[in-house]
Design brief:
Blueprint (H helix, E strand, L loop, with lengths): L1 E4 L5 H14 L10 H13 L5 E7 L2 E10 L5 E8 L8 H15 L4 E6 L4 H10 L2 E11 L5 E10 L10
Parallel strand pairs: 4-5
Antiparallel strand pairs: 1-2, 2-3, 3-4, 5-7, 6-7
């Protein structure tokens, strides 16, 4: 298993991961995914200036997951998002992607990472909690899905201690 910084050459596979996981309903992005728009957004993040960054999780040369940190409207706060294919789960890739993001946030001077997670995504919530993320709130019935239903999300965050090594490893 390898976790490394994403390259422009990875955007096709990364967009495929996003589209597949979106089909499962585990992330905010819904199917059908505008794969061209996702590729452009990922390419812009990978090549752009600033603290935004992306990583991939590979096994035997196949990208099984991706994660990214993106700027928010608050200085020093980055938003985390990730997607891992079903056959990549339970292999430590999520933990390694999170460790890479935490280390990057420390190096670029961020003071906080935030994320949103579906309240029923127990596996992700457990990982985030083990690393030190805490629940800051809930957005009740916040996201209207294409089928008309409303979904709530948990808001979780971690303060970045710039002197400590990553707890996610």
């Amino acid at each position: 298993m390898t976790v490394r910084r994403a390259l422009v050459d990875d955007v096709e596979a990364m967009a495929g991961v996003m589209a597949a996981v979106a089909g499962e309903g585990l992330i905010g992005t819904e199917s059908p995914v505008d794969v061209d728009a996702v590729r452009r957004r990922f390419r812009d993040t990978i090549t752009g200036p600033g603290p935004a960054a992306m990583w991939v999780f590979e096994l035997e040369g196949r990208i099984l997951g991706q994660a990214g940190l993106h700027e928010t409207g608050a200085a020093g706060v980055l938003a985390f998002g990730a997607a891992i294919l079903p056959d990549g789960r339970g292999r430590g890739g999520g933990r390694a992607l999170l460790a890479a993001a935490l280390d990057h946030a420390r190096r670029c001077g961020a003071h906080k990472i935030e994320l949103e997670v579906w309240p029923d995504n127990a596996r992700a919530i457990a990982l985030y909690s083990r690393v030190g993320f805490t629940v800051e709130g809930v957005r009740r019935d916040h996201y209207r899905r294409r089928d008309g239903s409303l979904r709530s999300t948990m808001l979780m965050a971690i303060a970045i201690d710039r002197g400590a090594a990553s707890d996610a490893t």
